[in-house]
Design goal:
About 40% of the residues lie in helices and about 15% in strands. It is built from eleven helices and twelve strands. α1 packs antiparallel against α2 and α3 packs parallel to α10. The two termini are about 25 Å apart. It binds nicotinamide-adenine-dinucleotide. Nicotinamide-adenine-dinucleotide (NAD) binds next to β5, β7 and α9.
């Protein structure tokens, strides 16, 4: 596992203190205590599981969007179309951490009743790490698949073979419950990397690995700076050549066209400098399946056990320690960071302090809460 060693200026914050800081900033900005807690739960868990791209580094962006009037406090999932096992929910640009949680709760209850529920969630502000929603379904014993698209800002990801970005990092997730409480969670951006990972590299002053980015002219680059500055920017490539490129297109259509939340086109992308400030709008089509209603619940559990054991019994390749299944790296990282703390690079920490000041919390108050 990669080391969490920090550079000068970076901070290491214990998870409960990081949670306290995060919740305090959102509460100070007018979120209810429950909303502030849910946002903090989500962001800190993203850091704990190793996805810093979707952790507390998103806090400054959320506060910016809220102050710009393109993310709203204290809203709840609104059911706008109800056909029982098929339900459409509008987030009205409320905090995604509340809206998506409530949308999954509605879907889980219905899947328990009908065996399946399709939840079409539209217009939520950023819903963060999609695995969080898969884990919520898995904890209730449900299998779930999530297709997500993103708009409200300019495109970031080039289609397969394209030199210009046409959509964003469109994540996909499938989660399979396991009686041990350790589900299989496949959760990734369909781009080579999540945009937040480019942000983290940019903030750390590091280069990206080859093969992830192209510049505005369409030429390969390792410089995360290609994604900043005046438009046109460079693009992130999709993963897995035409296969990942195809899945990215499917995610935009499933999440954007089917839910009514709209696909990523010039109609729905907003450029910095336009009259409407940019934001992060997520739409998500979720299919939740209750394995108990398919008549093979016992067999399903046995098959999951046997198959995963069989997969993991493969002799590791040279240089590979162990064959892992999706979800395992996140659990290992979580155990390590829960014990040792969450490393936050100096730029991200400064951005968090800036955001805290904007809502009226001093650097000293934050440092004291964080214990740094
Ligand atoms: P990633 O490339 O780190 O891939 C993560 C997935 O791969 C996980 O399921 C993990 O368990 C699995 N995995 C990793 N190493 C493995 C190994 N050695 N063996 C087996 N499985 C392994 O993820 P990413 O593409 O950088 O995405 C990061 C996060 O960003 C995700 O949580 C995603 O949902 C989120 N995201 C959200 C949005 C949004 O709009 N809300 C957009 C893009 C990405």
């Amino acid at each position: 596992m990669a080391s969490d060693a920090t550079k000068p200026g970076d901070v290491m914050v214990l998870p409960d203190r990081l949670h306290q800081v995060t919740a305090a900033i959102f509460e100070k900005d007018g979120c209810s205590a429950e909303e502030a807690k849910l946002i903090a739960d989500h962001l800190v868990l993203a850091n704990l599981t190793g996805h810093d791209s979707h952790g507390v580094g998103m806090l400054p962006r959320y506060i910016e969007d809220r102050l710009n009037g393109v993310c709203h406090r204290n809203l709840h999932a609104e059911i706008v179309l109800d056909h029982g096992a098929v339900v459409t929910i509008d987030g009205n640009l409320g905090y995604g951490q509340v809206i998506a949680k409530e949308a999954m709760e509605i879907g889980i209850e219905r899947a328990k009743k009908f065996g399946v529920c399709v939840v079409a969630l539209r217009n939520a502000h950023h819903i963060g790490r999609i695995g969080h929603w898969g884990e919520q379904c898995a904890a209730a014993g449900m299998v779930s698949t999530h297709y997500v698209n993103v708009h409200g800002h300019h495109a970031l990801v080039a289609p397969f073979g394209g030199a210009e970005a046409r959509f964003t990092t469109n994540p996909y997730c499938t989660a399979i419950p396991h009686k041990s409480g350790a589900p299989i969670v496949l959760d990734f951006a369909t781009s080579q990397v999540a945009m937040g990972k480019v942000r983290v590299a940019f903030n750390k002053g590091e280069q990206m690995e080859p093969g992830l980015l192209i510049d505005a002219a369409g030429a390969a680059t390792n410089d995360p700076g290609a994604m900043w500055g005046p438009l046109p920017h460079g693009s992130i490539l999709t993963f897995g050549a035409h296969k990942g490129g195809g899945l990215a297109v499917i995610c935009d259509l499933m999440a954007g066209a089917l839910t009514g939340g709209l696909t990523h086109t010039p109609r729905t992308q907003v450029h910095a400098g336009d009259k409407t400030p940019p934001t992060i709008i997520n739409n998500m089509l979720t299919v939740i399946i209750n394995p108990k209603m398919l008549g093979g619940a016992d067999l399903f559990e046995r098959e999951v056990d046997e198959f995963i054991a069989w997969v993991k019994s493969s002799r590791p390749q040279p240089g590979v320690e162990e064959v892992l299944t999706p979800g395992e790296p996140e659990r290992a990282r979580k155990a390590k960071r829960t014990a040792e703390g969450v490393p936050i690079d100096a730029t991200t920490w400064r951005q968090i302090l800036d955001a805290a000041r904007r809502v009226g919390l001093s650097d000293n108050a934050i440092a004291e809460m964080a214990g740094v």
